[in-house]
Amino acid sequence: MSDAYIALADGRVLEARARAPGRTRGELVFTTAYTGYEESLTDPSYAEQILTFSYPLIGNYGVRSERFESESVQPRAAIARELTDDVAEWLADEDVPAVDHVDTREIVTTVREEGAMACGIAAGPDATPEDAVEEMEACEPMSDHVDIGAQVSVTETTVYEGDGVADVALLDCGAKGSIISSLTERGADVHVLPYDSTPEDVADVDPDVLFVSNGPGDPENFIAAQAVVDAFAGDLPMAGICLGQQVITSALGGSTEKMAFGHRGVNQPVKDLRTEKVVMTTQNHGYTVADTGPLEVTQVNVNDDTVEGLDSEELDVITRQYHPEANPGPHDSLGFFDEVLELARSEPPVAAD
């Protein structure tokens, strides 16, 4: 008899095996990554989502905290064909429900055909199908999580020192730790500011570059971050990754839209339109840029032509939809951080409007 149930918005309830008990709900998504499960499970961009792994065995090289992208597990739950005891115990210790012994191919196919959807999970000796359905019916769409940044951001400014090469003001909308380390390893001092910081907060840092991080949810809900971008547009160099690209674009007059099931994995091909070179990238996003506003498209996704890179020489802006910093890789595009620091100006930035 099953001790775990997965309720899908299409009306089906799947039976599974409980590996970490609990009840929860979230947007059902999947990743095609065949490695990097520790990084995925600690990526703040998965907040309010239930993460399904398409690779059949998760946990085959243990759990090591030095690989974490944040201090805690971020998805609301994890689904796999098979979870090792190491991963199951880790998730149980974090009070994050986890289930396996389910046909993940069926789940992935469903999401690909029907789109990311509401999902409910009930796991443990007393779990019932009705419990999972109740959770699913209470699930809110991602765009309704209007203050999701509060769940994943620092609450006060934190400084990570490099070698003083440049001062980077990083708006933390759910930043992965490897973004910070990619900058400090290149000598930058990184000032990590809360997601709801004001233009005055950023001006107090006196940065050489404004960097908007990745993060979960709808970029249109990050109103404060957009206000910061608008205040410094044209006066301070700017960079962004993932949600950061979307926030910057929207603030500059462009627009974003929700994708059917998004891009999540470590094998997304991206073509640079200037060099004609194709690189493999790690991605994790459910929204994308629709209208680029004043920014020029420099890179596109080979699979669906969605925008992967933008820049503007006039505004000193450079952004990427994918994750150049991704661990455990690929590392084809780490040079992005060198480009970001090249934007740094020696003269003090103009004060916010």
Automatic annotation (TrEMBL):
**Domain Carbamoyl-phosphate synthase small subunit N-terminal, first and last residues per copy:** 2-122
Question: Mind telling me which InterPro entries this protein's record contains?
Answer: Anth_synth/Amidotransfase (IPR050472), CarbamoylP_synth_ssu (IPR006274), CarbamoylP_synth_ssu_N (IPR002474), CarbP_synth_ssu_N_sf (IPR036480), Class_I_gatase-like (IPR029062), CPSase_GATase1 (IPR035686), GATASE (IPR017926)
| Protein's pathway | Pyrimidine metabolism; UMP biosynthesis via de novo pathway; (S)-dihydroorotate from bicarbonate: step 1/3; Amino-acid biosynthesis; L-arginine biosynthesis; carbamoyl phosphate from bicarbonate: step 1/1
Catalytic site: C242 (nucleophile), H323, E325
Reactions catalysed: L-glutamine + H2O = L-glutamate + NH4(+); hydrogencarbonate + L-glutamine + 2 ATP + H2O = carbamoyl phosphate + L-glutamate + 2 ADP + phosphate + 2 H(+)
Could you list this entry's UniProt keywords, alphabetically sorted: Amino-acid biosynthesis, Arginine biosynthesis, ATP-binding, Glutamine amidotransferase, Ligase, Nucleotide-binding, Pyrimidine biosynthesis
Listed Pfam families: CPSase_sm_chain, GATase
Instruction: Give a yes or no for keyword Ligase in this entry.
Output: yes
Lineage top rank: taxon: Archaea
Q: Which residues bind L-glutamine?
A: S45, G215, G217, L243, Q246, N284, G286, Y287
Annotated spans, CPSase = 1-168
Question: What's its EC?
Answer: 6.3.5.5
Q: In its keyword annotation, does this UniProt entry include Ligase?
A: yes
* Function of the molecule: Small subunit of the glutamine-dependent carbamoyl phosphate synthetase (CPSase). CPSase catalyzes the formation of carbamoyl phosphate from the ammonia moiety of glutamine, carbonate, and phosphate donated by ATP, constituting the first step of 2 biosynthetic pathways, one leading to arginine and/or urea and the other to pyrimidine nucleotides. The small subunit (glutamine amidotransferase) binds and cleaves glutamine to supply the large subunit with the substrate ammonia.
Subunit details: Composed of two chains; the small (or glutamine) chain promotes the hydrolysis of glutamine to ammonia, which is used by the large (or ammonia) chain to synthesize carbamoyl phosphate. Tetramer of heterodimers (alpha,beta)4.
Q: Which family does it belong to?
A: Belongs to the CarA family.
What is the recorded name of this protein?
Carbamoyl phosphate synthase small chain
Which gene is this protein's source?
carA
